[in-house]
Amino acid sequence: MRLRSDTTETGGLGSNFTPDHGERPAGGRRFKFPKFWGTPSGQAGVSGSSRTDGRHSPREEEPQTVTLTFDQILEARHLCEASRLLIEREELLFREIKETEAFKDHQEEVDKLAADYRDLEGLVMQTLRLSLSQEEVSMRALTSAVKAMNQELSQDQQWKQRDQTPPAWRPCGWKKLHDEMLRSLVEHRMDSPLTPPADQQQQQQSSIQRDIHGMGRQLKEDLLVVVDAVKSCYPPELDICNFYARLYHQHLSARLRKIAEFVLEDKDCSFILRWVNEYYPEILQKAELASEIDAEALGKLLPRKLLEPLEEQYLSKEQDELTTYIGRVLEEAKQKWTDGEEPTREDGCFVSPVAYDIIQLINGKVSSAEKVVGDRHKAQTITCKLKDLMQRFSTFQNNVMKQNKPNSRPFIKANLGCIQQFSDILHGNIHLFPEEVQNNCLLILADMKQSAHSYLLKPVHENLKPHYRKLGTSDWLHKQLFEKLLVSIEQELQELQGSIESCHQMLIGQLHQEVTAEYVKRLLKGDVKLKNKELQLKAYTTVRDNAESLHGLFIAMGSNKGWLTDILTKIAQVLKLQDLPAIQMQVASLGAAFPDLTEKHVSALLKLKTDFSRANRKTVKETLSETLKENSSVTAQPFFSTVHVK
């Protein structure tokens, strides 16, 4: 039934209705209308009361008085005016009953008034039932119905303050009826939501998903109607937007509770969680709704006791999928190596998809899980088995190195890129991992990188060993010897090509440090004796020049450890200096820069200067000890801890 009426109420009626201040009949209300209907049928064009000069008489120019009955007012859906009319009749009738104390004499009028109230109540409730159907009811009619309800509630309060027996319809309880009507309206719309033509995605949904999706769509559309139109029909104190929001929230929550109490398939489980933690909050966060609805006061759609089992089921499934996928990626890499394949090359570098594929999956799953369960820490638990998976990756790498097949070195070079990618994601995306998982995986990766470096550098050091043996001997002071070492190093560096740039840089830096450590170790071994100032100055020049040559070669090849030059330069200065205070200062400077320098290292260095007394060596070592105590909190690159001396 359509209830639209575009007539504007003025005092409940159209703007052309002017209340007459004369006596009003019991069943209607008198109004004055301007005369615009023309001449009544059956009369001449000029009535007998017209002036003979053609002008209308004053009586004819006055507006005519017409009377609208209560039924006519109801039919026009002027519910607010109808309510006022009934209240006026009620007041007149019960004032007369009180004055005459003759209730029985007015029984017929009381019954008629009660019947009119029932008719009005029926229309008000019918209008409320159509509140959200803008095609069925106008907002003017709804506004009139709300005003009528408020008038009746005010009249209820008036009767509470009187000592007279109220009529049977007081209190009317229309507010309670209003709330029940809207609750029934919401339940009906949510139970029978409008369903647009199903697209391919919806056709693939389960019945539970389609049911929830339909309710969610209906909820969103209806709340937008409430905010855009219905809100204007209510006074602010009734807070109608939040009232409707609570009704929809309660109904959707009740439906989800019933569904969640049953064992669900994984896809339905995740769908419900997404509605609770993602889709539903997104609806309430829409700009049009957020300013009118207190979403925080509504709370969660499901209680914790129902959410937790769903979360456990979902997270367990995601964890299993991640574990299975990573295992498959590692197995594919292992199979390629077993089959003798080499990793693919990009820009001349060996690369592996292992890290990229795993990282993409981890990032996607954890980010999605955070939205689904609405909690970052819970989402991170998906990666709780990553340590075991990373250990499998480490075991695979160890097997590759142990068997040392022709394609093993290319695989290790490719693995260095994977190790770097995994390390970057663990350092830069801590939101994806529990802290314990992050730390454990980083330790495994650090060990893998060091093992890979050792594997790749071991043959290099074996080839350089003949040159190492001559360091620190009398032959070492001749420039030609060291130049041969540099040529061999440059040749070996070519064999180390094949890792991505950042990994190659670290590998070359590692070799740079190890060659420098080997140089210092051979020097401190003490095979050469610097008996006088001349030899000590020559040793200074040799070490300084060697430091510069090593620096130039390794930096050109990509090393990022230029600080290694300072070690050799400071050692050279110690060999050159003759005064005890100057040597003390130089050793103190070396100890401050490298706190892993020990007294054994200093003693071995000073013993090269055979003319430096034992007492002076003791003094210098005491200076070092004091320096190390003062700088105990300083952290620096470790170096001397890798240089073993007797």
> Architecture of the largest domain, according to CATH?
Orthogonal Bundle
Query: DSSP helix count?
Result: 25
CATH superfamily of the largest domain: Exocyst complex component Sec6, C-terminal domain
* CATH class label of the largest domain: Mainly Alpha
Instruction: Tell me the strand order in the biggest sheet.
Output: 1-2-3
Looking at the structure, the CATH topology of the largest domain is Tetracycline Repressor, domain 2
Low-confidence stretches: 1-59
- Number of DSSP strand runs: 5
Gross geometry: elongated
Strand content: under 5%
Mean pLDDT reading: 86
How far is the first residue's CA from the last residue's CA? 105 Å
Portion in helices? 55-70%
What's the quick description here?
This protein is mainly alpha-helical. The protein has helices at 58-61, 70-75, 79-100, 107-129, 139-160, 174-191, 200-203, 207-228, 240-260, 266-284, 287-290, 295-298, 304-338, 354-373, 376-380, 386-403, 408-428, 435-469, 479-495, 501-524, 533-556, 564-576, 580-593, 599-607, 614-630, and strands spanning 18-19, 28-33, 64-69, 344-346, 349-351.
What does this structure look like?
The protein has helices at about 60, 70-75, 80-100, 105-130, 140-160, 175-190, 200-205, 205-230, 240-260, 265-285, 285-290, 295-300, 305-340, 355-375, 375-380, 385-405, 410-430, 435-470, 480-495, 500-525, 535-555, 565-575, 580-595, 600-605, 615-630, and strands at about 20, 30-35, 65-70, 345, 350. With about 650 residues, it is mainly alpha-helical. The protein has four domains: about 20-35 and about 65-190, no CATH class; about 205-300; about 310-450, Tetracycline Repressor, domain 2; about 470-640, Tetracycline Repressor, domain 2 (Orthogonal Bundle). It has a three-stranded antiparallel beta sheet. The chain has a two-stranded antiparallel sheet with strand order 4-5. A hairpin with an 8-residue loop joins strand 1 and strand 2 (about 30-35). The chain is elongated and about 140 Å long. The model is unreliable at about 1-60 (pLDDT under 50).
